[in-house]
Amino acid sequence: MRYSVGIAMLFNGFPLIFFFRDTLGIGPASSTFTAVFFAFALLLMVPTNLFLRFYNPNPVLFNLGVGFLLLSVYYFLFFNSTGMGITDIGNYAYIFAFLLLLLSIPSDVKDALVPVLFIFSLFSNLTLVYSLMTDPSWTLGMRAAVSFSNEGAQAGGNPHITARNGIICLLTAMVLIPQYKSIFAKLFLYFSILFSLAVIVLSLAKSSYLGVGLMLGLYVFYNFKVTKIFSAIGSFFSFKNIMLVGLVLVGISYFLSQYGGVMDNLLNYWDMFEGRIMDVIFTSFGVKLSDTADIDASAMGRVSGFGTFLDTLYSWDVFLGRGYKSGFLDVPILEALVNHGILGFLFFNGFNFFLFIYSIQEIKRNTTPLSTFLAYFFISLIVLLISGGRPYDIAYWFPYAVMIRFLGIDYFYKLSRQPASGRLAAASS
Fold this sequence. Notes:
The chain is mainly α and 429 residues long.
């Protein structure tokens, strides 16, 4: 449990950091609080066998991921066009320390990590509601995020952190549902899923909307076959399932009767999302599918970044790149080439390509709850890889480190195919 708490604090710690630091005013309103928070998480992860025993990660992901990190550290030290930043040094120290500790932690942590991630993300959803209710500048219709309290920070906070937390809560709840037989536990998890969907909607993060769509599409593709549909319909008409669905419908009906404007607000959010998508299409392709479409500033930045990518591709810079953080494209898969040349492009995009392959495999075979969660979570990140962030961001690499350790592990798959007696024997040996 201690290991799981430490991993969860690094995997999805930003919502809690923003709540304690910016809403409750605990600690300095700067990156110092974040550094202390992450340091405490690493301390919780320290095992008794540190440096004495290491557990096998996914070798392909490990080699490609660590290869890109080492390459970027080399560029940071010797091919740096932005100066030696203390923040960058700290980020790399945390990433490598996190990966080292993950390799030192026993594989049994996979059984406790998903419930801990669910509890953390659900609590973060609740803290978001509290933060919005106590924020006089926020009104329904604005993007939901914890407002930063430090000077010069982004106004209104970061809605992508809000949406990501909602996705984590949604996925962990869905993965946990088959683990419980209690109707009350299942009911609680279903309501948590609905709550998480509401948080994702309120965030107005286009990438998360599209990510949820991708996850849903893959889930339907690999799970809804004709034979399974008929068997699912037959199993649905059990007393327990009918009672469960009935309670959910009653709860939704009561909520809508008490808060009649909720549906109107949801439709309003959909209209805003549709308008933003039209703006992006108009900005990117010059095709005006809506009379109200306008230039989208963030999309325009990516369009300009794509021009920088093409300039690099057709110059000598394609071989070595332009230097560490020399260009900010807001498209990580392209920035890897602009800043680090062909080698950086191959390492970073090869890493994400194999992550996609292992995620698809895991979605098909459902080895462990943690592996299934990580697979779907990476699918939700694919949209961000072409629409936001940098290839060095710890918001990517903390989840990446967990995927390197627990995704596509042959040992887990072989163990999951053994009968219960075989698993007990393997565990004892």
